[in-house]
Amino acid sequence: MTKSVGVHEAKTHLSRLLEDVAAGNEVTITRRGAPVARLVPARDTRRRFGMDHGVFAVPDDFDAPLPDQLLADFER
């Protein structure tokens, strides 16, 4: 559900609006009837250890010495 409120109401009732957003709703804040901001639920941005397990495999030659030309290119 999307709700629209004016700036004054948003300042006055911010705690209530945040409860609505935490419940999964969106709130559009308007100034003189024009939308200026949206309050939306925050995404979980934490990284979880092992979440990419199996996506990448370390090649067998990972620890092999680099070819001389490639080493020279890094030293330029």
UniProtKB/TrEMBL annotation:
Signal peptide stretch: none
**Stated role:** Antitoxin component of a type II toxin-antitoxin (TA) system.
| The organism of origin for this protein | Capillimicrobium parvum
The entry assigns this protein to a family as follows: Belongs to the phD/YefM antitoxin family.
The protein here is known as: Antitoxin
Q: Which InterPro entries match?
A: Antitoxin_Phd/YefM, phD-YefM_TA_antitoxins, YefM-like_sf
Q: Taxonomy-wise, where does this protein's organism fall, top ranks first?
A: Bacteria, Bacillati, Actinomycetota, Thermoleophilia, Solirubrobacterales
